[in-house]
């Protein structure tokens, strides 16, 4: 596989682009993306290239282009691009000669640096740039570009500014609003989204070095949606021309901004620019790096001692990107399926949050997990509207979720059907209904793991109850079989678009209904005040009666004579097909070049973990033998065409005790974004897969699990790992855990409560600040 | 001056780009633009580059992005761009080596061709492309690309399709509508403008050569606003891989389409694609070239025998672009200030039509001139609304005009004010009021030159009368001087933004009022039926009374003691400034880098012909001495910062008998687009200047003039010209005129009426088919 990616030896914090290749712009724009959960910026190069995707997003600022499109995160004006003309020639790495090229993301400091030597027409120029999005001051981003003519004086012409001609693949969300140039080269551009009417104000201060540099003419132009300044200078040989751009961004949706009208935002932007003037790029970068250490690396350390430093890099890379993509500051927002690093999935939130990312937050930053699930509570209005629009009761969560009020945000039309020539209808927004149970699952996990009663009482319980109500209203009665069924759904395996009794969906629905029933009973018995309050709002008697009546009559697909759980009513009778001809590098990629979805629907082919995911989430409900038999049946039929698939298979293989297979799957999953495949990340980072790097590490190899409120830790370290050390929060106690092949050590760093857990050899209690050591070998 | 433009020797039909230079994309995109008056396409290269402006427009399909922006011609989906990957390397002329490069526009056939040899990684590929927009079938455009691996077999991967991710500098006008792939690689994409709700349907058929080519996998993708097919093939050494793309476009605004709903347009597109299938690229190109000959070159030939073939090329180049930019098929549209070749001025129509382009059409294609002025009649509604909105009566024409119903379409905000840092307000839409008289002037010229009574009676007279009414209501009474004045206007010299009694405006206004008065009298005396009909509509008695009362009291700036006509009340008392420091290559370019508009307003500096234009349009009203004195006064103060300036100065200098100066000005004006300046045409062609090439030729050097209904021909050939031969229509007779330094020959090719004209030595009559020869030397 042709690749330009490099992993500096023995360095678990850096990832590099070793040579510039214009074919691979998208890869690095995504994996080198910067951000702080509020603001995310793809790492487009300073100079522009055909095919670049120069995206910057601010979480939660959704806008809809027209009524036929769904809402999406708009690509805001860019401040990173520059045009550099050196001695009359525009800097373009496709021309001249490039040597000593390096671009490196340091995930520890959140800084992206780039350097190279450019030779053109016999003259050499040393280029160095660095940039970051502040992790300390969320509205601030900065860029510094240094250009040194090596041996002869040079003339430079540099154009930089605020460029609102950006689009989302041709979709323009902003009006052409006010631009203004202030003394001291402070540029300010305002823009307003068209439909959602959110104001954005970007303010940039441009600074220049003076030693060996003679500045010439400056010209500022106000073009359409653009405010650009062009600077000229003569540079003495050996002296760097240094351009620094300190930018701040505010929007009328910001939770930390009080006055949200345009002129207040403009004043705020100017004020911030003024306040930043005394601080150098280095100072601001250091302060940001310190925030990374304080909030992430030192606060909740995870270390992996392994044969290859790439595994340790993977967990750091994953945690970096989780911090970059997660709007931890604002419960009205959630994580997009591509984070803030690309236009894929339009910034929308899926079940990925609850099933694949929430575990990291529950165990590492429970206060962030709380915000992510508060978002679901705040979205109840849209969920209730969706249920009602579809003729159901309670709360039916949208498959794709954007702003809390938006409700269902899944687009209706997708890729070409190669047989009919028409666009394919996307059914997920209509019938991929397991999301509603997934939300309840996530909320329950959060409550169980944290014991956060305040959240449960004010938000979580209401979601659990009204999702249970949805399922009760959703069931289809089968008069012949005298049972309830769930017909015409899409399960996690999206190749099967109109499945009946999808095992995952039915099991999750029943579990959700049972959770509601149990909660009603528990509240009536133990929390009469809350019971009364919720009964007033939600009519719990009626709910209990309806759910009770139906729950036992709901059909659940159970293991058949061969111990295989049928994925749905028809799957096991469909055509068997050999996937080998469609497999390249161990990945099925070309199936849809040969078949359309209707044809794939008729085959025993699965996109991603479906029954396997069910067995993972409800591991206690199924025997090891059933797990093994289903693994043997479904894994060879799975294309892993979704980035959500491999991580579950990794953990499942680890649970089954197959360390080699688990590590093989881990490596494939780890490499979805970070690996050498240069084309897989163009649309943005795979958020769930990034969350999965933590899950594979802590759940899969670390063997941590929380089941029905109980903590279990049974290490499964692969042979290539020598020690895994991490910290987790459990019931408001912070635990430090170290695992080797020989021993498991657990210490309660908080030490204010006893911790019960299951592990090899039985149940244990960790008391106070004691360290518990369990021998494994 | 660094340039890559070439004029093939002794060839008055071709203009070439000699080497590829990515700095000059915009120049060639504009001057090589293709079109047929319905559809115009900038000549972006087949492969994409940073900085390209890939525009395609359809005349009259205006859309407004939001209520704060003015309406503009939307950039429709592109069909010319391809991505070509040869043996794994993307074709990009910034990489590898390029030799034998040539791109040539043949203005005679309307075909653009390009060829080069590309060497990459030791392999050579011969690239040839050609394209045209059909001049025969206005909905059709075609492109052919041929790639031949010179010495070794090669693999190609070519992506082409319909790309609706185009924007107007970031402004998206279209929704993401239906895409569809039909058998035989017929691609169809529909799109609808957001505000004006105009449907566009583009249908492309892709064809491939088969000899020496083994086609591989084809993949069609429906992306956002995109329908793209990727083709792969193995090519034998020495064999061309030929890709042909035959596209047709329809819109719901098309005058020749009856059923304008989306599905009818889609059916029409498919039907046209089907009908075009039997025809090769060559056949369609030949048919288009024949239409160019039939409608332009053979129908109304103009030849120049000069020292340099570049002067003959200039008139052909100008007539080519006039045909490309003029929507001669539809009177609901007019010519944009940048034609259909760029986003500059948003496709809007200015006074340029009447003053600088209409003369060509009146004398060469009077039926087109009629459509251009019919547009003004159809726009009366908006003009009356504008008058009423401003508190005036009658019809006040918009400074910038778009769709006939739109009314005033001038944007309100322009470039940065370098002193305040704010955007500059554009006052033209409010107070550049001479446009209303300019429209009346054009209509009167058309009627005088053609004698088209049907147009006069049904349309022209109404415009003349209601513009006269506007002026009567517009005048400002000066009680001190007991006279009417016109205060607070912008004249042609747009440096003076709030001028009082601008000479051009006052003279034009008075002339317009007098024209109305004369018309009322004439109608009453000679056309009682029309008089009654118009009186019923427009209350002619009241109009006559009001205009009569005011017209004699309107102050007209007359020559002062030095024979200088004051440009306005204050001009002659403003500061004198030496323009030399701001002059580069004979052109004042950098004035606004040093002063803002308020400062320039205080100087005796003029942007473009203002008093000089007045003297040209009303040459009979002023003595030769006055003309000379004003020339000597104003010319040195004129920056010619508008492309509308030099051409008037050329004709004026020719009239004054200064052949050398006239030819110098001519060369500068001729070269505004066609010349070696690589940056002047980025925003699109200078339509008025292009019209001026004909005016300088036929009016300036040919000495043709029509004054108060009389034809005059007094040749002024420059020394470098040996013979000028052209044809004109005059009073429905087609005249063939040949001029040398010795003689003027006139023959009436129609010969159905006698023609009176003035020339050297007195008045002449041309009878029947006789040739009149007048000796000059």
UniProtKB/TrEMBL annotation, chains A, B:
<dbReference type="InterPro" id="IPR012341">
    <property type="entry name" value="6hp_glycosidase-like_sf"/>
</dbReference>
<dbReference type="Pfam" id="PF03636">
    <property type="entry name" value="Glyco_hydro_65N"/>
</dbReference>
<dbReference type="InterPro" id="IPR037018">
    <property type="entry name" value="GH65_N"/>
</dbReference>
<dbReference type="InterPro" id="IPR005196">
    <property type="entry name" value="Glyco_hydro_65_N"/>
</dbReference>
<dbReference type="Pfam" id="PF03633">
    <property type="entry name" value="Glyco_hydro_65C"/>
</dbReference>
<feature type="domain" description="Glycoside hydrolase family 65 C-terminal">
    <location>
        <begin position="705"/>
        <end position="766"/>
    </location>
</feature>
<feature type="domain" description="Glycoside hydrolase family 65 N-terminal">
    <location>
        <begin position="17"/>
        <end position="253"/>
    </location>
</feature>
<dbReference type="InterPro" id="IPR005195">
    <property type="entry name" value="Glyco_hydro_65_M"/>
</dbReference>
<dbReference type="InterPro" id="IPR011013">
    <property type="entry name" value="Gal_mutarotase_sf_dom"/>
</dbReference>
<dbReference type="InterPro" id="IPR005194">
    <property type="entry name" value="Glyco_hydro_65_C"/>
</dbReference>
<dbReference type="InterPro" id="IPR017045">
    <property type="entry name" value="Malt_Pase/Glycosyl_Hdrlase"/>
</dbReference>
<dbReference type="InterPro" id="IPR008928">
    <property type="entry name" value="6-hairpin_glycosidase_sf"/>
</dbReference>
<protein>
    <submittedName>
        <fullName>Glycoside hydrolase family 65 protein</fullName>
    </submittedName>
</protein>
<keyword id="KW-0378">Hydrolase</keyword>
<comment type="similarity">
    <text>Belongs to the glycosyl hydrolase 65 family.</text>
</comment>
<dbReference type="GO" id="GO:0016787">
    <property type="term" value="F:hydrolase activity"/>
</dbReference>
<dbReference type="Pfam" id="PF03632">
    <property type="entry name" value="Glyco_hydro_65m"/>
</dbReference>
<keyword id="KW-0808">Transferase</keyword>
<feature type="domain" description="Glycoside hydrolase family 65 central catalytic">
    <location>
        <begin position="317"/>
        <end position="694"/>
    </location>
</feature>
<keyword id="KW-0328">Glycosyltransferase</keyword>
């Amino acid at each position: 596989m042709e690749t330009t990616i490099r992993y500096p030896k023995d360095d678990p914090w850096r990832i590099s682009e070793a040579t510039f290749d214009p074919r691979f712009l998208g890869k690095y724009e995504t994996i080198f993306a910067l951000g702080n959960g509020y603001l995310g910026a793809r790492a487009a190069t300073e100079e522009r290239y055909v095919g670049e995707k120069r995206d910057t997003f601010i979480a939660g600022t959704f806008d809809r282009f027209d009524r036929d499109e769904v809402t999406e995160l708009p690509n805001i004006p860019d401040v990173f691009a520059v045009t550099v003309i050196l001695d009359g020639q525009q800097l373009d790495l496709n021309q001249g000669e490039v040597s000593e090229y390096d671009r490196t993301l340091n995930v520890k400091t959140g800084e992206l640096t780039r350097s190279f030597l450019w030779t053109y027409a016999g003259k050499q120029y040393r280029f160095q740039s660095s940039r970051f999005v502040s992790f300390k001051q969320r509205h601030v981003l900065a860029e510094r570009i240094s250009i040194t003519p090596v041996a002869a004086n040079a003339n430079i012409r540099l154009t930089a500014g605020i460029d609102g001609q950006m689009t989302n693949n041709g979709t323009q969300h902003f009006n052409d609003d006010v631009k203004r140039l202030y003394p001291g080269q402070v540029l300010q551009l305002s823009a307003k989204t068209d439909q959602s009417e959110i104001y954005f104000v970007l303010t940039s201060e441009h600074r220049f070095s003076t030693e060996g540099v003679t500045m010439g003419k400056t010209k500022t132009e106000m073009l359409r949606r653009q405010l650009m300044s062009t600077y000229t200078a003569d540079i003495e040989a050996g002296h760097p021309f240094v351009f620094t751009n300190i930018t701040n961004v505010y929007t009328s949706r910001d939770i930390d901004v009080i006055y949200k009208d345009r002129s207040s935002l403009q004043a705020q932007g100017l004020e911030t620019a003024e306040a930043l003037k005394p601080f150098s790029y280095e100072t601001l970068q250091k302060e940001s790096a310190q925030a990374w250490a304080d909030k992430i690396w030192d606060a909740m350390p995870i270390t992996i001692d392994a044969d290859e430093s790439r595994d340790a890099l993977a967990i750091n890379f994953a945690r970096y990107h989780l911090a970059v993509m997660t709007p931890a500051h604002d419960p009205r927002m959630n994580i997009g399926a591509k984070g803030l690093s690309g236009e894929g999935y339009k910034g929308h939130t899926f079940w990925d949050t609850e099933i694949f990312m929430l575990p990291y937050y529950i165990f590492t930053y429970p206060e962030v997990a709380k915000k992510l699930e508060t978002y679901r509570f705040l979205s109840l209005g849209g969920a209730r509207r969706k249920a009602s629009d579809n003729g159901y009761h309670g709360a039916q969560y949208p498959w794709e979720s954007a702003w809390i009020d938006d409700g269902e945000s899944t687009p209706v039309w997708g890729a070409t059907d190669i047989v009919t020539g028409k666009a394919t209808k996307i059914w997920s927004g209509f019938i991929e209904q397991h999301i509603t149970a997934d939300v309840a699952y996530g909320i329950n996990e959060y409550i169980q793991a944290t014991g956060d009663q305040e959240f449960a009482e004010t938000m979580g319980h209401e979601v659990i109850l009204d999702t249970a109500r949805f399922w009760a209203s959703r069931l289809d009665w089968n008069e012949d079989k005298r049972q309830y069924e769930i017909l015409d759904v899409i399960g996690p395996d999206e190749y099967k678009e109109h499945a009946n009794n999808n095992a995952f969906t039915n099991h999750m629905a029943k579990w959700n209904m049972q959770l509601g029933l149990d909660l009603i009973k528990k509240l009536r018995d133990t929390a009469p005040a809350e019971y009364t309050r919720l009964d007033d709002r939600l009519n719990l008697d009626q709910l209990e009666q309806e759910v009770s009546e139906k729950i036992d009559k709901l059909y659940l697909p159970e293991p058949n004579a061969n111990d295989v759980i049928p994925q749905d009513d028809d799957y096991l009778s469909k055509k068997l097909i050999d996937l080998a001809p469609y497999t390249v590098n161990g990945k099925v990629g070309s199936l849809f070049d040969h078949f359309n979805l209707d044809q794939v629907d008729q085959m025993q082919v699965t996109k991603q973990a479906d029954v396997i995911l069910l067995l993972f989430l409800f591991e206690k409900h199924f025997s090891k033998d059933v797990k093994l038999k289903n693994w043997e049946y479904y894994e060879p039929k799975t294309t892993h065409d979704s980035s959500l698939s491999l991580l579950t298979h990794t953990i499942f293989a680890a649970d089954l005790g197959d360390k080699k297979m688990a590590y093989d799957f881990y490596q494939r999953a780890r490499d979805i974004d970070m690996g050498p495949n240069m084309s897989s990340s163009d649309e943005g980072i795979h958020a769930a897969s990034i969350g999965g790097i933590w899950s594979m590490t802590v759940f899969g190899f670390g063997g941590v699990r929380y089941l029905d409120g109980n903590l279990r830790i049974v290490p499964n370290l692969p042979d290539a790992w020598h020690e895994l050390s991490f910290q987790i929060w459990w019931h408001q106690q912070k635990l430090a855990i170290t695992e080797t092949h020989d021993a498991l050590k657990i210490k309660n760093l908080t030490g204010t409560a006893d911790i019960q857990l299951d592990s090899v050899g039985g149940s244990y209690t960790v008391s106070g600040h004691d360290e518990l050591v369990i021998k494994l070998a």
